[in-house]
Specification:
By secondary structure, this protein is of the alpha/beta class. It has 13 helices and 15 strands. The protein folds into 2 domains: 7-35 and 323-419, Aspartate Aminotransferase, domain 1, CATH 3.90.1150.10; 55-321, Type I PLP-dependent aspartate aminotransferase-like (Major domain) (Aspartate Aminotransferase, domain 2, 3-Layer(aba) Sandwich). A 7-stranded mixed β-sheet has the order 4-10-9-8-7-5-6, with helices on both faces. A 4-stranded antiparallel β-sheet has the order 11-12-15-14. The chain has a two-stranded antiparallel ribbon with strand order 1-2.
């Protein structure tokens, strides 16, 4: 597409956008009496307008039915996680029995590591990217210690080449091959939170399997953002949150994917809970854990219905819009954002910005901008002018226009504000 840095061009793109109507389904934070330019869907997605109605429905059932809401409510709480499974599976490219919505991201990662990080004296290392999100680093470090290994020896972090900001697939392959006899698990982000790099999940998984290791992923910045085909790519396990691109509220419930080859594998160690027990036998309260088939067998506790109610609303929006349509629009928005940023830099010599996010297709909705010593002043300038962006120490501004509620006009206005710095 030939881009133009003009309001009329941006508006013409919005007029041709079949997804523009979904913006009306969300509350947009206001700034000085007008809608802000909200570019932090990669940190906390906006509230669907239907969220309060969905939550109130469950509150009403609780008020009117009490405990009977588990079976007599409009959406019976006993079965609540089932209402979320199919639409979650579509977003991550999985079969329904490979997915379950439960807990939150870091809790789920620990549960998955218990089952899928099974080190031996010879194969005990975990390979991951340098600078992963802190939760990932802490999970890996503590799990390694749990098995009696020294993190300095057991954790191999891969960093970009000198003067580069993102990893090359060939460098990942080299490190995996170098440690092939000692690697138990390869664990990466789907999208690197700081740089916005999209990792090649398929190739990483293939390489991990070729050296006899399992492959797991943190999809916090990937679910609802990029195309995922976890089943087709034979990923072993993955987990994600729902409060970023999935717009389900702060600290909302997380999701888990476990490949179908483990669906009925009762030899795997796991931390068990009663909601993971065979659903037909659950209320018999018997000794002896009998896991549900598939990912559902990793559940611990009964459903957090109030957060799931909001998540259900968001997943239904995704199902209506279609994840493939959203990914397509995200690419178009991101390409226009890159054009506008570069044009703004040329127009304003005071702007010292360097895009550290890879070019398409190695990116999703996010572009990360490396700034100079005036970076915080630039960020404050954006904030004062109604742009809600994200500052990451020491000097990166993350910009993430998302397809459900951001527009080409948002991006044009962002460029106008950049030029005024």
């Amino acid at each position: 597409m030939h881009f133009e840095n003009s309001l009329s061009f941006a508006q013409s793109c919005d007029n041709k956008d079949n997804l523009i109507k979904f913006r009306e389904l969300f509350y947009i934070p206001q700034h000085n009496g007008k809608s802000s330019i909200y570019f932090t869907g990669n940190s906390l997605g906006l509230q669907p307008k239907a969220a309060s109605e969905a939550l109130n429905q469950e509150l009403e059932d609780w008020k009117n039915l009490g405990v009977e809401g588990h079976f007599q409510g409009k959406n019976p709480w006993f079965s609540y996680h089932h209402f979320l499974t199919e639409n979650s599976a579509k977003i991550v490219g999985a079969k329904s029995h490979e997915v379950v919505v439960m807990n939150q991201l870091t809790t789920n990662l620990h549960l998955l590591f218990i089952s899928f990080y099974r080190p031996t004296a010879l194969k005990y290392k975990i390979i991951m990217e340098t600078g992963a999100f802190p939760s990932d680093m802490y999970v890996v470090e503590s799990q390694v210690k749990l098995h009696g290994f020294d993190p300095k020896e057991a954790i191999i972090e891969i960093k970009p080449r000198e003067n580069e900001y993102h990893l090359r697939q060939e460098d990942i392959d080299i490190i995996l091959e170098l440690h092939r006899d000692s690697v138990a698990l390869v664990f990466f982000s789907g999208v690197q939170y700081y740089t916005g790099q999209v990792f090649d999940i398929k190739k990483i998984t293939e390489k991990a399997h070729s050296i006899g290791a399992l492959a797991g992923f943190d999809l916090a910045h990937a679910a609802g953002n990029i195309e995922l085909k976890l089943n087709e790519w034979h990923v072993d396990f993955a987990a994600w949150c729902s409060y970023k691109y999935l717009n389900s509220g702060p600290g909302s419930v997380g999701g888990v994917y476990i490949n179908e080859k483990f669906a009925n594998d009762n030899t795997l160690p796991r931390l068990a809970g009663w909601w993971g027990h065979n659903e037909k036998e659950r209320f018999k309260m018997l000794k002896g854990f009998q896991p549900e088939f598939g990912a559902a067998g990793w559940q611990l506790s009964n459903a957090p219905v109030f957060s799931m109610a909001i998540h259900k609303v968001s997943l239904e929006i995704f199902a209506t819009a279609g994840i493939n349509n959203l990914v397509r629009k995200a690419k178009e928005l991101n390409a226009y954002l890159e054009f506008i940023i570069k044009d703004s830099i040329q127009s304003n010599p005071k702007l010292s910005l360097n895009i550290i996010t890879p070019s398409a297709p190695e990116r999703g909705c996010q572009i990360s901008l490396l700034t100079d010593d005036n970076g915080k002043k630039l960020f404050d300038h954006l904030t004062l002018n109604g742009v809600i962006a994200d500052w990451r120490n020491p000097n990166v501004i993350r910009i993430a226009p998302v397809p459900l509620y951001n527009t080409f006009e948002d991006i044009y206005e962002f460029g106008t504000i950049l030029k005024l710095f």
